[in-house]
Amino acid sequence: METLFNRKFNFTPSSNDHPLVKLRSNTFDLQEDHVKLKLTITETSEFGDQLNKEDSAAVILDYINKQYDAYLREEMKAKRDLQAYHDTRVHVCLYFVSPTGHSLKPIDLVTLKALDGHVNIVPLIAKSDTITKGDLQKFKARILSDLNDHGIRVCQFPTDEEEVSEVNAKLNALIPFAVVGGDEPLYSLAAKGGGGARTARGRQYPWGAVCVDDETHCDTAPLRAALLLHNTEHLRQLTRELHYENYRRRRLLELGFSEEDGLSLGELHERQRESLAAAMRSAKDAQHQLTLQRAGEIDAKVERDIAALVARKNAQEKRDAERAARLSAASRALDEEIAEFRRRQKEQQQQKPPVSRSQRGGGSSSGGLFSSLK
């Protein structure tokens, strides 16, 4: 990476003992042909070093999707400033293939298949100076054949624009790019158009030198031109209009929006907010109706209980009234019997003959008379 971007990044060497792929991101400010560029490089440290390699691709894909999700959340904010937002979306994945000279490894096929459709993939053959020219071309052909057989799409630079069509056609013919890393100063590269030799970078071997800036030695210089000179905006556009839109569409479908909605993110956000507000109002209304229903049921029960109490009270009062009436009737009957008894008693007394005075005391009168005559 230092050779490709022609600067020191001072990456910390990996320990090769981590149980999963370790991602490390660093951001640098570059300037290419008076154009300032903010470059973020994310290392997939220790990729392929684990005994269990099944989760290696998942870690990378999860990182890519998290960057898309962060951008989507920023887009859906009511107050957003995408111009000031630091875009961390991955615009290109440089996938280094080991220079085996045979074909892609299973882990390469699994990882590339997982990344396909999520990021712009540019395959590279690492340490390509370890393979002869003839074997290198055969290796490139095998890699392309493996990619085609497994339906893996890699980045193709556009050839429909007249300004870059010829250059990009040559760049596409170099895929996968054969790269070499080396920053040792060399003085064997002649300047184009004459003018003597110029300093070049590369590797010095006992049998000769490999110049990383010489297109006849490796594809490092064409790769640099493809990424930083001719197709920088194309990679951004492809990420924005294809890969990010695919993620955005999937994410919005998960949130319940239809593809036929045809709304902007702001409108979708407002629609989602209104939908949530309507759902809250509906839930509140349902709760209110339930409260009213329960209150009505309680009121009805209270009314039934009151009616039952009133009915029992009325029945008791009726029984008491009937009992009182019976007692009153019995009392009247008794009074009548007493009155009748007294009346009869009185009549009986009146029916007895009267007793005269002489009858009441006749013997005594004669004796008295005799006594007086003596």
From TrEMBL:
Gene Ontology MF terms in the entry: GTP binding
Keywords, ordered alphabetically: GTP-binding, Nucleotide-binding
Region (Disordered): 338-374
UniProt feature, compositional bias: Basic and acidic residues: 338-349
Signal peptide: none
SUPFAM superfamilies: P-loop containing nucleoside triphosphate hydrolases
Annotated InterPro entries: G_SEPTIN_dom, P-loop_NTPase, Septin
CDD domains the record matches: CDC_Septin (cd01850)
Pfam families hit by this protein: Septin
Chain ranges of the Septin-type G domain: 1-254
Low complexity: compositionally biased ranges: 350-359
Similarity-based family: Belongs to the TRAFAC class TrmE-Era-EngA-EngB-Septin-like GTPase superfamily. Septin GTPase family.
Name under which the protein is recorded: Septin
Source organism per UniProt: Macrostomum lignano
